[in-house]
Amino acid sequence: MSTEPGASAASGASGTDRHETIETSVTGRVAVIRLHRPKALNALNSTLMHEVVTAAESFDADPEIGCIVLLGSERAFAAGADIKEMQSKTYADVHGGDLFTEWDRFAAVRTPTLAAVAGYALGGGCEVAMMCDVLLAADTAQFGQPEITLGTIPGIGGSQRLTRAVGKAKAMEMCLTGRRMGAEEAERAGLVSRIVPAADLETEAMTTAQTIASQSLPVAMLAKEAVNRAFESTLAEGVRFERRVFHATFATEDRAEGMSAFVEKRTPNFRHR
């Protein structure tokens, strides 16, 4: 069967729903969004942006979805923004239309997200991957912000998220030279969660996503919010926020179930409330 984004498929696997630039599917509590512009190496045009954001928001609104996986192809996660689409635009066009602002809605999704990157993740592709909460890299992955070679700079958060992930020294070099970073360097620098063989990437991504989705959804959302707060606050403020959120978990049924299951030496049965 075909499952529209946001439709529940908790009992098993759904078929693939095809859009113009993406494919979506649901397996258990895991939703998958696959970028699908093979002739353009999944270049991020406005249609793809809109379809990814719409699908992600729909899955985010579905209480039966506990993790959203973003995939590309073996050759390219996404090779960048669609330059042909942007080439003729003026300052008035991009400023007046606030070009790329729609991607902010993807970054704001509360459900945990996982990017599985093989091949090229350049420019906008690197930026979108960095928006995700967990980033798995195939051993073929290449990351970069080559906008400088086009006479511009990153525009979807690359200069900010890359710097927070790998530090100023590497981020500055990559943004000023366009140098690419391979998977091993990306893992050493802290850009990716871990590396897996390219042949195992999708299997490992689904296994990790299923593990995330098996946890209490409201508590997973709180954990995500607490980690992200570290980038927006001082240490003291962040610790205070974490403690208040930790206290708040004691108002959930799942916290009571989790601790009871631990004491009783059984697997918890989270009800996501």
What does this entry look like structurally?
The protein is an alpha/beta fold and 273 residues long. 42% of the residues lie in helices and 16% in strands. It folds into 2 domains: 22-214, 2-enoyl-CoA Hydratase, Chain A, domain 1, CATH 3.90.226; 217-264, Orthogonal Bundle (Lyase 2-enoyl-coa Hydratase, Chain  A, domain 2), CATH 1.10.12. Strands 1-2-3-4-6-8-11 form a 7-stranded mixed β-sheet, sandwiched between helices. A 4-stranded mixed β-sheet has the order 5-7-9-10. The radius of gyration is 19 Å and the shape is globular.
The major sheet is characterized as: 7 strands, mixed
Instruction: Please identify the structural class as seen in this structure.
Output: alpha/beta
Q: What is the chain-wise order of helices and strands?
A: EEEHEEHHHEEHEEHHEHEHHHH
Write out the strand line-up for the largest beta sheet, numbering strands in chain order.
Answer: 1-2-3-4-6-8-11
Termini separation (Å)? Answer: 29 Å
Number of helical elements? 12
Radius of gyration (CA) equals 19 Å
Mean pLDDT, to the nearest integer, reads: 94
CATH class of the largest domain: Alpha Beta
CATH homologous superfamily (4th level) name of the largest domain: 2-enoyl-CoA Hydratase, Chain A, domain 1
> Roughly what fraction of the amino acids lie in strands?
15-25%
CATH topology of the largest domain: 2-enoyl-CoA Hydratase, Chain A, domain 1
